[in-house]
Design a protein that fits this description.
Elements: H1 2-5, H2 8-21, H3 27-33, H4 39-48, H5 55-64, H6 70-82, H7 85-94, H8 104-113, H9 115-124, H10 130-143, H11 147-155, H12 161-174, H13 179-186, H14 191-204, H15 209-216, H16 224-234, H17 240-247, H18 252-260
Helix pairs in contact: 2-4, 4-6, 5-6, 5-7, 6-8, 7-10, 9-10, 10-12, 11-12, 11-13, 12-14, 13-14, 14-16, 15-16, 16-18, 17-18
């Protein structure tokens, strides 16, 4: 009753006592207090949720990182950090990050959570279920964290459409920096990675042409036909001369695809 009818000082004291008690019955009132009109009460409620583990509490913290009060946002981010990977999964679910990049406020929260958030996201990007992988990748894209590039070749072989969409978002965001990683996935043993790699190389455009031409003109390379298909998708005029050169070869396995292109 104090939390709903008491003065602000009394509400804050009641919240702090509930948090320290650790009682299961304390969870509901603390979550309700995150909706209090007083910013001070919401700050204490957000801090209390760092001590109380509940799904409703994580959802409330996810909501509070967009609060109008900067101190409330900070307290919510600190409490989320306490909950580790559970908090990251909650953010992905709450903000539907499986299919889009996070809003600026979410990105700011992740930055505030520091290396712990990055490490957790890297783990989640390699985990189940698929929507969590996709959301973790999107978060790492928004953070522009370079370590994500090391995961790209493996993630390119993922069969989930949302994960593949997140990988394409990473290629777009990192641009030319992603080229060696996209090439590694494209030239691997995975057919899905090869397919996504062709699209990724096309996204990167002109910077993809020379490495592909080098593959095409390397007579000892087992990837010459694969290079032709990728060059066709990139669609650059600078690859015409090498393709014409290959069309004069006697090897039908290479000459015919070049002619078709």
């Amino acid at each position: 009753e104090v939390l709903t009818t008491g003065e602000e000082v009394a509400r804050v004291a009641a919240l702090d006592a509930l948090a320290l008690s650790g009682a299961e019955v304390a969870r509901g009132p603390i979550v309700e207090a995150t909706l209090d009109e007083s910013g001070t009460v919401r700050i204490h409620a957000a801090s209390a949720l760092g001590l109380v583990r509940t799904a409703d509490g994580l959802s409330a913290l996810c909501r509070l990182i967009a609060d109008t009060d900067a101190e409330v946002r900070s307290a919510a981010a600190n409490s989320l950090l306490v909950h580790g990977r559970d908090a990251l999964t909650a953010l992905i679910d709450y903000y539907s990050l499986r299919s889009r990049l996070p809003e600026p406020i979410v990105t700011l929260t992740l930055r505030a959570m520091g290396d712990a958030a990055v490490g957790g996201l890297m783990d989640l990007a390699r985990s189940q279920p698929a929507h969590v992988r996709a959301g973790a990748i999107n978060c790492l894209v928004a953070l522009e964290h370079q370590d994500l590039l090391d995961l790209l070749p493996g993630l390119m072989g993922d069969l989930d459409d949302e994960v593949r969409g997140s990988v394409r978002a990473a290629v777009r965001r990192f641009g030319p920096e992603a080229l060696p990683y996209v090439l590694r996935g494209f030239l691997g043993d995975s057919a899905p990675a090869e397919e996504l790699g062709r699209g990724g190389l096309a996204l990167l455009g002109e910077v993809s042409v020379q490495p592909l031409v080098d593959l095409l003109l390397d007579f000892n390379s087992p990837f010459r036909v694969r290079a032709i298909t990728a060059l066709a998708q990139v669609g650059s005029a600078t690859c015409l001369e090498p393709l014409v050169q290959v069309m004069a070869e006697r090897d039908d396995s290479v000459r015919v695809p070049a002619q078709d292109t």
